[in-house]
Input
Amino acid sequence: MARQPPSIPETNLSEGDIAHAQETAWIEVIRKMEEVYSDLIQYEIELEEKNTALEEAQRFITSVLSSVSDILVVCDSKGRIQQVNLAFLHLTDMAETDLIGMPLDHMLADDVQQLSHWLEAGHGGDREVRFVHGGQGATDPVALTCATLLDHRGLPAGTVLTGRPVGELRRAYEALKQAQAQLVQQEKMASLGRLIAGVAHELNNPISFIVGNIHVLTKYRERLEAYLGAIHQGVSETERDVLRRSLRIDALMGDLPALIAGTQEGAQRVADIVKSLKRLSFSQGAAAEAVNLADIAENAVHWVIKGRNLPGLPHMDLPATLLAAGQTGQLHQVVVNLVENALDAVDGDARAVSLRGRVEGNRVTLDVCDQGPGIAPENLGKVFEPFFTTKPVGQGTGLGLWISYGIVRDHGGELIALNRPEGGACLRLTLPAA
Ligand SMILES: Nc1ncnc2c1ncn2[C@@H]1O[C@H](COP(=O)(O)OP(=O)(O)OP(=O)(O)O)[C@@H](O)[C@H]1O
Ligand SMILES: [Mg+2]
Output
């Protein structure tokens, strides 16, 4: 169809004028068309750029979703699967195309309460489920967490489920538990080592006493043998008196009672030490019994002071009996740790350490305090963490308080760290009274 030139209003114009007006109108039309065309091209370029950015973002999100090891499932408000990640496809051995649009409940392996009810009820928290695997059979249990999916207006549009096979979590937990048990064992060996050093020191004294006395007694026996031998052979009275003087028999007889008593005392001391050692038990799981925390504290202080060979004693403010429910060996270990820390804080000056015990209702409390620098406020919450130590390498493992905390907690008690207003730290041990 031929194009009609734009109409020109009927007026008294010459033919030349009309032709000119028509030409101008055509030029205007062509200019407009060119403008529109160039705009179109511009729009197309912008659109392509936006498209590329969108594809880039899509690829990025997809690669993130496929590289996370946790499973991820997005459901619409009716509980139908909208999107899943690679981890879910691997776990269930299903194809993405088969899953999209399927109600998530159909993927449950067990006859449990349907997920849709759980989702509808808007439950937070975890839930353990097993999914169908490859259309039959079941996957390992998965710990699922559910969150609400919001649309662009911020309104609920579905749910996002994330989860991780429980087996994996359990394995990690088991490994952690094993590592912890190993550490506890190592610390026990270390405290056993410290204890043995203390024991060796304690036993050394009376044993060297006994050995010295026996040596003297052997010499005395030789002299007595010689003297008695001569008497039995029937020597004269004069010869006997000479022998009695030269062998210093009277002095020997005078020494004997003290030597025997001293040896007896040394042997008794060894027996006492062995007896107190027998009270220490490093065994787990022994039943709690009524123990005198005051005795345990005295004993622990004694061990630490002797073990370190320190002069002076801590100030002890303990009632005669402070009956707690617990295990002697383990509580001994706790008090030893607290006293060692207190002594470290005061450079081994035992007189700057004090222990105070008391009964409060159905609890007994033991404070181990010192006049040291105290615990920096930012460290108050950390001292019970394993490996937390401010001591130089080789002087502290940072396990003492951690182990102690565990023991006290197992006893149903409490161990807290405080700074005293007058300066210095105070570790407060509270236990159920027996
Ligand atoms: N009485 C105290 N005064 C000041 N700081 C303390 C006191 N007791 C504990 N701490 C702080 O708590 C940290 C942890 O104590 P913990 O007994 O657990 O480990 P450690 O004494 O450093 O080493 P380990 O006991 O294993 O030999 C110490 O390094 C110290 O910084
Ligand atoms: Mg310590």
Remarks:
- The chain has a mean pLDDT of 87.
- The pocket of adenosine-5'-triphosphate (ligand 1) is lined by residues 337, 341-342, 345, 370, 372, 375, 383, 388-391, 396-402, 425 (CB under 6 Å).
- Residues 166-232 form the longest helix (67 residues).
- The CA atoms of residues 227 and 233 lie 10 Å apart.
